[in-house]
Amino acid sequence: MKTLLRRELGALWQNPWQLALVSYLPILAMLALWWLFSAALPRQLPVAMVDLDNSSLSRELGRHMAASPVVSPISFASLPQAQDAMNRAEVYALVVVPHGFSRELKTAAQPTVDVRYNGQFLLVGKLLAANLQQAIADAMKPLAYSKQLAQGANPHQAHINIAPIATQTTALFNRNNNYVGFLVPPVLIALWQLTAMLVFANALNRELESPARQEAIGLLPVLGAKLLCYAPLLMLQGLFIHGLLFGYLKLPVAASPLWLIPAMLALLLAVFLIVAVIFLLMQESARVVSFCTALFAPAFAFMGVTFPVHDMPAAAQYWRLLMPSSHYIDSHIALVSYGVSGMELLSKSLSFMPFLLLLLPIGLLARQGLKEVQS
Amino acid sequence: MTLLRLILEELKAIVADKAIAVTLFGGVLFYALLYPLPYLNQVPTEQALVVVDLDNTSLSRELIRHADASPKIRVARGAGSVTEAQHYIASGDFHGLLVIPAGFKRDLLLGKGATLSYGGDASYFLVYSALVEGLVTAGMDAAKSVQLLGMLSRGESFAGASLSLAPMHLNAVPAYNPGLGYTPYVVPGLFLLILHQTLLIGTGILGAGQWRKSGYWQQVSALELLMGRIAAFGLIYAALGAFYLGWCYHWYGVSVQAGLGDIAAFIVPFYVATAAAGVATSCLFIRRDMPTQVMLLASMPILFVSGFVWPLSLIPEPLVMAAQAIPAVPAIFGMLKLNQLGAGFDAVFSEWLMLWVLALVYLALAWWGLVVRRREVNSPITPKQA
Fold first, then answer.
1. Is A15 exposed, middle or buried (0-12, 13-18, 19+ CB in 10 A)?
2. Is the distance from CB of B338 to CB of A88 less than 8 angstroms?
3. Phi, psi of A76 (to 5 degrees)
């Protein structure tokens, strides 16, 4: 085994691409992705404001919108200009205050304020819709309040009459709706899984080139040596992710992230088993990489972080189970958000167990050895 | 060799190469099904909610029924205390919490006002926003009926009471993706990225596999080979593009606002720039399994920097600038404006121009790369790999 390990490390040293994959390249990609999302909270998003009324009340409305940290209103003189800006994706929403807004309010004719938000940019659109509605409702409160006073309610009573039920909304586990805390961990894990897949695929593919076939030792010890050689190196990258997230960025974490190590090891083992099966079946380097890529590239979508798992169709929920990263992210969120105990987390890691069934085809295929001639 | 003959040779080489065929035809078809699969149900509905009803009156039960009636919320179970409810949420099966305080009904009837507490699991943003939207609506409905009752009891007319509660009407409607579906949000950008990446990989594998061998690619000039290769891949991608942008968009309910002419005019420089970039990068590789690996690692950063998932105005300026060199980035944003937002061609003119500039730059690089590679073909020295 020692000779086999030395052989692997020697091969790694001579392959600049593989060396880059186990060291700086994924780290650079991870830092780039974090930098991309580093704004963390969407703010100052451009919104077109068309004030056709131009009264003190409509300007008050504009001030309330500008006060929201998410909204950055831009005045447009006419509706077509604003619509054009919306079509060009220069603004994400459009607010129209109609002619006679102020007069109608005073004569109790219930004017209509139009808000159009860009649903194509779902994330930004929804955020703006909620914030604009909140800002406009706030702007209207003084008016409703003075009406209540005019009707003879005392100031305290007037407040309660406007809003008899106060609400208090708490974002559990991710207090300030931080997108770094929400998106960056699964993105980095997905990238890590891709790296692990490529590293294993390259390591296995090298067996196709080496002129000395391993008839003497058999294929299984060779596979084992590859896992033993690369898993620790990949593990370091995984720990770098956690160091970045919890150490440097200080994302809140409810329990010790060290408990995630077993789940990370299980992910690496599962990825290795899948790649090994594909390698033994295909036995051609470009095809192995292409096939593994097809399998692992969409893993992020199936993690269920951006779109809830229980709203996925059944087929997607089954496919999800084939992806080691989905199993891992469940443990990750359970620990980071809910602070489950280490024992519970270990029992969650048992969901990786079915991947061990892949040892069966691996054992069978490995006994047949590699084909003599490769295409 | 005539250009037509060369294109035929290229097409034969593409189809005969199993790794390219897997990527181009298998991959593109497979991704068309697999990527949108999780999002087919479009919107998150019926999020499981835990209710802590400390009031237990007719009014609190009515509020719970209101919440349950919302399409976004399913009242999944009750809990005796907030701690108990938090325990349920930590199990991962429930994502929201509604606390109705003791004395809720009494306080409201006495005109003292009451406070409802909502909580949502913000580890999942769509779940959180669905829960909060549903709860806020339910809470507002309950508030309205309480206010109305109060005002009517004070002798106001029904019409007057409703008006003083809502002095204006707010008409908030989503534009462009009216159902706020997740598929129309993700698919347009994603599918263009898939076309971009597979085209780069296809041209990459073909080139990487040929540099050390001799064949038809030796019998033509570098310029001819470049033209022939772009034409061959262009033909294949015209079909794949029509399949994605036509049939798949229709199937997934993605809006198609632009006419065929505009789409064609916009996609031509995109394909030329991408294919040329593919040929240029293929000159960096001699191992056939390399292009897929490089492109795969680049996919996620390109997806997120193209401006439809995460707003461009929030992405650090240097990243946005650097990303313009990737044909997919101006193409995704331009096509989004053209086809999803329905802006005219003049709105995407700068992106269109950018794609032509990229096309010229990559064509020059590809030509240079081909010249260098072909000179090396018969030399036994292994060139440095990227």
1. middle
2. no
3. -125, 140
pLDDT of A199 above 50: yes
Q: Is B55 on the interface with A (CB under 8 A)?
A: no
Contact B150 A29 (CB under 8 A): no
* Residue B103 phi, psi (nearest 5): 80, 15
- Distance from the Cα of B179 to chain A's closest Cα (Å) equals 8
Question: What distance in Å separates the CA atoms of residue A346 and residue B27, rounded to the nearest whole number?
Answer: 36
Take residue B153 and report the two structure tokens written for it: 């009891």
ipTM of this predicted structure: 0.87
Nearest to B198 by CA among B288, B269, B275, B285: B275
pTM: 0.88
Q: Which residue has the tokens 């690996």?
A: B293
Specify the pairing of strand A112-118 against strand A71-76.
unpaired
* Contact yes or no for B171 and A113 at CB 8 A: yes
Please report the DSSP string for B135-190 in residue order. Answer: HHHHHHHHHHHHHHHHHHHTT--HHHHHHHH-SSEEEEEEESSTT--HHHHHHHHH
B369 phi and psi angles, rounded to 5 deg: -60, -45
- Nearest Cα to Cα of residue B19 among B243, B202, B257: B202
What distance in Å separates the CA atoms of residue A181 and residue A252, rounded to the nearest whole number?
8
**Residues of chain A with C-beta less than 8 angstroms from the C-beta of B74:** none
Alpha helix stretches (DSSP H) within chain B: 3-16, 18-21, 28-34, 58-69, 82-90, 104-109, 125-153, 158-165, 182-210, 222-242, 249-251, 260-282, 290-305, 317-323, 328-335, 349-376
- C-alpha B302 chain-centroid distance: 12
pLDDT value at A112 more than 60: yes
The length of chain B, given as a count of residues: 386
C-alpha distance across the termini of chain A, in Å: 30
Across the interface, do A307 and B44 touch by the CB < 8 Å criterion? yes
Q: Does B76 touch chain A (CB under 8 A)?
A: no
On the question of pLDDT at B386 being above 70, the answer is: no
- pLDDT surpassing 80 at residue A178: no
Is B287 an interface residue toward A (CB < 8 Å)? yes
Residue with tokens 């149900």: B41
Cα gap A352→A359, rounded to integer Å: 13
Residues in CB range of B179: below 8 A, 6 or more apart: A119, B42, B43, B253
- B343 interfacial to chain A (CB closer than 8 Å): yes
The contacts of residue A94 (CB under 8 Å, 6+ apart) are A47, A48, A50, A82, A83, A86, A114, A115, A116, A117, B175
d(CA A214, nearest CA chain B) in Å: 23
Look at residues A214, A252, A239 and name the one whose alpha carbon lies nearest to residue A335: A252
Contacts of A122 in chain B (CB under 8 A): 177, 180, 182, 185
By residue count, chain A amounts to 375
CA dihedral over B38, B44, B45, B51, signed as positive or negative: positive
**Alpha carbon B298 to chain centroid distance?**
16
DSSP A262-313: HHHHHHHHHHHHHHHHHHHHH--HHHHHHHHHHHHTTHHHHTSSSS-GGGS-
pLDDT at A214 over 60: no
Lookup: tokens for B222: 């570098």
Beta bridge pairs of residue B172: A115
Closest CA to A223 of A153, A276, A166, A177: A276
**CA–CA separation, B243 and B335 (whole Å):** 16
Chain B contact set for A26 (CB, 8 A): 297
Name the residue among B333, B327, B321 with its Cα closest to residue B354.
B327
Model confidence band, residue A375 (pLDDT cutoffs 50, 70, 90) = very low
Please tell me the distance in Å from B41's CA to the nearest CA on chain A. Answer: 6
Inter-chain contact B296–A113, Cβ cutoff 8 Å? no
Interface test with A, best of B314, B317, B348 (most A CBs within 10 A): B314
At A277, which amino acid appears? V
